[in-house]
């Protein structure tokens, strides 16, 4: 904020020097009649209006001039744009208080020390920034918010971003996205990120599910299936020679007796003559006897 205000006055000074008609001009008539006020003659604008204002700020901070005189002198130099620095003392005082608070706060001191130690690194990688973030979280605590400050040297601007728990310190690369996908896929508890669970079909048939199967404690499972995921297409390839094994013991059911089998076959509701009338049944039985007695 302080820089932006001073920078605007500096730009106005450069514009005034490029266009002399914009600067202060003495009214010759008023001077000849003795009506010209010379109380601003002590303001030295030979080095530019901006430099003159900086000198007035120094005098104001040293107590050589009071608030009213400071405002009058700056208004004389920059007219209506002088309001930008009328409260410069309060702004600087607020900045000093913030700096003082940082220097006495143990967490802030540790963060500054961490920043200085990593500032000397020649290059930054995603892993380096991840480690830096973990160290910062250890200092401020996991419940506190973290902010990322970026400064663009080309356009000279600074941005401040609130970082979430899963946000990257740098823009994720294709390799970072691939590693995140594989890690999410290997998480058997949570759904894989980027997959719409509602569009997926069940893996097992409902008829094979036996919630109260007492033989489940006797099953044999061996997970040795290996696969690889293509980094570009995310296509999955299974490794030849690897497999998963699932074996469930066969249940031994008692076989029906001959009488039960005969009863089931001859039944008019479940047997071969189901839905047949009496005449049709007799005709088919007679035809079957002929075939059995005279085989082809």
Describe the model.
The chain is mainly alpha-helical and 296 residues long. Helix content is 44%, strand content 9%. The chain contains ten helices and six strands. A two-stranded antiparallel ribbon has the order 1-2. It has a two-stranded antiparallel sheet with strand order 3-6. Helix 3 (49-62) packs antiparallel against helix 4 and helix 6 runs antiparallel to helix 7 (126-140).
From the helix content, strand content and strand pairing, which structural class follows?
mainly alpha
Count of β-strands: 6
**Number of self-contained structural domains:** 3
Q: Give a quick account of the main beta sheet: strands, pairing sense, barrel closure.
A: 2 strands, antiparallel
> What is the number of helices?
10
Query: What level of helicity do the residues show?
Result: 40-55%
Which strands sit side by side, in order, in the main sheet?
A: 1-2
Mean pLDDT: 77
Task: Sketch the topology as an H/E string, one letter per element.
Answer: HHHHHHHEEHEEEEHH
The first-to-last residue Cα distance is: 109 Å
Which runs of at least 5 residues are low in confidence (pLDDT < 50)? none
Q: What oligomeric state is this? A: single chain
Task: Indicate the radius of gyration in whole angstroms.
Answer: 45 Å
| Beta-strand residue percentage | 5-15%
């Amino acid at each position: 904020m302080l820089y932006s205000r001073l920078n605007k006055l500096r730009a106005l000074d450069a514009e005034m020097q490029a266009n002399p008609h914009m600067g202060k001009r003495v009214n010759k008539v008023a001077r000849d009649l003795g009506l010209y006020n010379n109380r601003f003659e002590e303001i030295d604008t030979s080095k530019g209006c901006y430099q003159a204002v900086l000198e007035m700020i120094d005098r104001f901070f040293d107590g050589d001039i009071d608030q009213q005189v400071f405002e009058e002198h700056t208004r004389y130099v920059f007219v209506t744009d002088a309001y930008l620095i009328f409260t410069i003392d309060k702004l600087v005082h607020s900045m000093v208080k913030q700096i003082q608070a940082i220097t006495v706060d143990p967490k802030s001191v540790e963060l500054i020390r961490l920043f200085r130690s990593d500032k000397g690194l020649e290059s930054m990688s995603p892993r380096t920034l991840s480690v830096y973030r973990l160290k910062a979280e250890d200092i401020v605590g996991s419940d506190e918010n973290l902010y990322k400050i970026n400064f663009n040297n080309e356009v000279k601007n600074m941005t401040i971003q609130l970082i979430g728990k899963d946000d990257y310190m740098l823009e994720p690369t294709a390799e970072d996205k691939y590693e995140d996908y594989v890690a999410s896929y290997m998480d058997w508890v949570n759904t894989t990120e980027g997959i719409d669970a509602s569009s997926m079909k069940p893996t097992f048939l409902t008829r094979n599910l036996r919630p109260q199967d007492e033989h489940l404690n006797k099953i044999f499972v061996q997970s040795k299936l290996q696969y690889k995921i293509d980094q570009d297409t995310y296509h999955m390839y299974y490794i030849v020679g690897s497999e998963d094994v699932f074996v469930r013991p066969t249940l031994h059911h008692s076989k029906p007796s001959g009488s039960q089998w005969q009863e089931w076959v001859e039944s008019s509701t479940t047997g071969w003559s189901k839905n047949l009338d009496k005449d049709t049944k007799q005709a088919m039985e007679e035809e079957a006897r002929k075939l059995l007695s005279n085989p082809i």
